[in-house]
């Protein structure tokens, strides 16, 4: 067994997990909400990227921009529909609505794109790189670079800009933020639009590594949930390191034990961590 190859696989997979989870991390950190349609939004972003490239003949970057725009619009519309529930913090109803929204997206994707799985090939995924005994592609390198840049930029925005200050105020106390003159409705709409764009970006980068299926959303929600909880609710840095840790664990467990039990083992670790540290490895300053 090539340990170096598994380490590389884990690093790539970990950055993919982190990218997948960052939208939900911000959503939880600012709006204190979950979106159980997150996985289906990832699936839709992957299909839009594939369709724009394979059927419309668009370059990879243009297809990716189209998918990100679509994700942003869907996130905005989704929050617009349930804005009243968000303001009331009706969490149970929001969970049900987002779960139903996810299945609507899955059904719509099946009607538009068909139920047959597709392969998203990009100029980067077609180029194999061999470095000694190691094998990877330029797509793997792009995933790592984009994830690191995205997390660094987002952390800077949240901690050092006016937009970030407003987001932190809403996360800490929405009622007080409203009294301070902040348009809380606009913040919530913006956060959902960001989540849609972020998960679409993850699809653009990560989907070339796996077949694209309309049923793929559930696995993505499970991964996202594990990363967000392990990293600490709303913690950007925590999500990055939790995604990386989960990726390394998945790669080594799958290689040395059995790939079929990887998810069960990951959740066993999740349970153990939360028993010791209920708020995860880290938590956002405004976490309650």
Kindly describe this structure.
There is one protein chain. The protein is mainly alpha-helical and 288 residues long. Helix content is 73%, strand content 3%. It has helices spanning 3-31, 38-54, 60-81, 83-88, 91-113, 138-160, 162-172, 174-179, 184-206, 217-231, 236-256, 262-276; strands at residues 128-131, 134-137. Helix 6 packs across helix 7. The longest helix is centred in the first third of the chain and has 29 residues, at 3-31. Residues 284-288 have low confidence and may be disordered.
Q: Termini separation (Å)?
A: 44 Å
Question: What is the average per-residue confidence, as pLDDT, rounded to a whole number?
Answer: 89
Tell me the CATH architecture. Orthogonal Bundle
Q: Topology as H/E string?
A: HHHHHEEHHHHHHH
CATH class: Mainly Alpha
Got a strand count? 2
Structural class: mainly alpha
Q: Count structural domains.
A: 1
Catalogue the unreliable spans: 284-288
Would you tell me which CATH topology applies? ABC transporter involved in vitamin B12 uptake, BtuC
Alpha carbon gyration radius: 19 Å
Percent helix, as a range, is: over 70%
Instruction: Describe the global form.
Output: globular
Beta-strand percentage range: under 5%
Summarize the structure.
With about 290 residues, this protein is mainly alpha-helical. About 75% of the residues lie in helices and about 5% in strands. The chain has twelve helices and two strands; from the N terminus they run H-H-H-H-H-E-E-H-H-H-H-H-H-H.
């Amino acid at each position: 067994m090539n340990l170096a190859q598994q380490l590389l696989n884990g690093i790539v997979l970990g950055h993919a997990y982190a990218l997948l989870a960052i939208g939900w991390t911000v959503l939880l950190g600012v709006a204190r909400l979950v979106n159980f349609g997150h996985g289906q939004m990832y699936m839709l972003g992957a299909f839009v990227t594939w369709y724009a490239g394979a059927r419309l003949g668009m370059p990879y970057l243009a297809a990716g921009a189209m998918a990100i725009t679509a994700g942003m619009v869907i996130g905005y519309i989704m929050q617009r529909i349930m804005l009243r529930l968000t303001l009331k913090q009706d969490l149970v109803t929001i969970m049900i609505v987002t779960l139903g929204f996810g299945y609507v997206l899955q059904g719509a994707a099946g009607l538009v794109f068909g139920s047959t799985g597709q392969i998203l090939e990009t100029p980067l995924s077609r180029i194999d790189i061999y470095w000694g005994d190691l094998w990877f592609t330029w797509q793997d390198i792009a995933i790592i670079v984009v994830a690191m840049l995205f997390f660094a930029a987002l952390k800077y925005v949240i901690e050092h800009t006016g937009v970030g200050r407003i987001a932190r105020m809403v996360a800490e106390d929405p009622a007080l933020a409203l009294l301070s003159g902040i348009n809380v409705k606009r913040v919530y709409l913006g956060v959902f639009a960001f989540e849609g764009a972020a998960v679409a970006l993850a699809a653009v980068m990560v989907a070339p590594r796996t077949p694209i299926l309309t049923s793929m959303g559930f696995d993505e929600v499970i991964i996202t949930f594990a990363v967000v909880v392990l990293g600490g609710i709303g913690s950007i840095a925590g999500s990055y390191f939790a995604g990386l840790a989960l990726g390394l664990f998945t790669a080594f467990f799958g290689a040395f034990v059995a790939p079929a039990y990887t998810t069960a083992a990951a959740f066993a670790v999740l349970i153990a961590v939360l028993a010791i540290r209920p708020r995860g490895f880290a938590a956002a300053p405004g976490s309650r």
